[in-house]
Amino acid sequence: MTTTFDRTDVHPPRVAGLLLAAGGGRRLGGRPKALLTHRGRPLVEYAVGVLRAAGCEVVHVVLGASAGLVRERAELLGCVLVDNPEWGEGMGSSLRAGLASLAADPRRVDAALVLLVDQPGIGGERGQPRAQRGPHPLAPLRVVHEHAPQQ
Hints:
By secondary structure, the protein is of the alpha/beta class. It has one domain: Spore Coat Polysaccharide Biosynthesis Protein SpsA, Chain A. The chain has helices at residues 43-53, 67-73, 91-104; strands spanning 15-21, 37-38, 41-42, 59-63, 80-83, 111-116, 129-132, 142-145.
């Protein structure tokens, strides 16, 4: 049996942003990583901007350590804020909490672009990450980092 795929039926992937921002910053003297500043903004705000620039309309932010302080000080309008009470167990617990939140979101998405709050080198002048489909309609999505033109 042969299966034929019609490329006109393939829709562009709807990719959600999943920002893991629950870390306690133990190696930073206990300052929450999400609130460290980068380019004059808290890292959590900067990272949400990277995800939005990458085309993620739906953004879930996983909070843990100092979640109340992050909510108070960071401007995260339009984001779904996910509490991870088990943040001390490590990044895997935040990934589980975020993926569970995305699965429960009524705005269905095809994939998640996962970003860590403490990696400000992604985005900005280096270009934006984006998700794209492979050449086959059933191929998994992959992330491509588009570099900005050299100056």
